[in-house]
Structure to design on (223 residues):
């Protein structure tokens, strides 16, 4: 059974940092590009970042470029998202996944003072 | 980053057929195809159809996807109450080097 389990979300003050993790199992993690997608409750899906299967290539949405860093550890089957200089508008549920096959359950990030 | 275009809402009767559309351009849907996702309130998205219009195991045959040029379509036959949900299309945009999503279509089953 495929599982993607996000962790690391929570409440953080504006300007603060958080690191999200996504533990993958049930599929060959190292074969897939991985993505982070976010969603403000009640709103649509917004792509955040992607990393290719061996970690050599990444790309980011303009809204997070320079503040967020996506990375992966294929030996641990884990995807990460380092989020710095957080803003109120980064508040959302963050999903990890392959987008075209598998999705996690999401973790809520709230940026507020 | 520009997204894909979906109608905000569609309403159909029980056991009727709904066709949802998703319009992009030659850099995304027209070149890479589109995947379709279903999302019920409070739940994560679930893949209904991949970019090659194939259903994952466990997805009902009532859901079928197709593409004509830069417009992708999801047809749902024999509508059931549980089909009431938000539906999103997604595609890789080779020009933006990014995934693009549609704004979502809220399907109401009357």
């Amino acid at each position: 059974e495929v599982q993607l389990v996000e962790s690391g979300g929570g409440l953080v003050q504006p300007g603060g940092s958080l690191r999200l993790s996504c533990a993958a199992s049930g599929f060959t993690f190292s074969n897939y590009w991985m993505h982070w997608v976010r969603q403000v409750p009640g709103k649509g899906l917004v792509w955040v970042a992607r990393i290719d299967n061996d970690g050599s290539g990444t790309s980011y949405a303009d809204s997070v470029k320079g503040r967020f860093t996506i990375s992966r550890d294929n030996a641990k089957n884990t995807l990460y998202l380092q989020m710095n200089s957080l803003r109120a508008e980064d508040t959302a549920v963050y999903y990890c996944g392959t987008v075209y096959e598998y999705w996690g359950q999401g973790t809520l990030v709230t940026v507020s003072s | 980053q520009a997204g894909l275009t979906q109608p905000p809402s569609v309403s159909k009767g029980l056991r009727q057929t709904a066709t949802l559309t998703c319009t992009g351009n030659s850099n995304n849907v027209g070149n890479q195809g589109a995947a379709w996702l279903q999302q019920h309130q409070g739940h994560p998205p679930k893949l209904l159809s991949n970019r090659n219009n194939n259903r994952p195991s466990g997805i009902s045959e009532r859901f079928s996807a197709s593409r004509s040029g830069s417009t992708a379509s999801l047809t749902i036959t024999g509508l059931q109450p549980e089909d009431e949900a938000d539906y999103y299309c997604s595609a890789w945009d080779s020009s933006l080097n990014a995934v693009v999503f549609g704004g979502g279509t809220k399907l109401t089953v009357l």
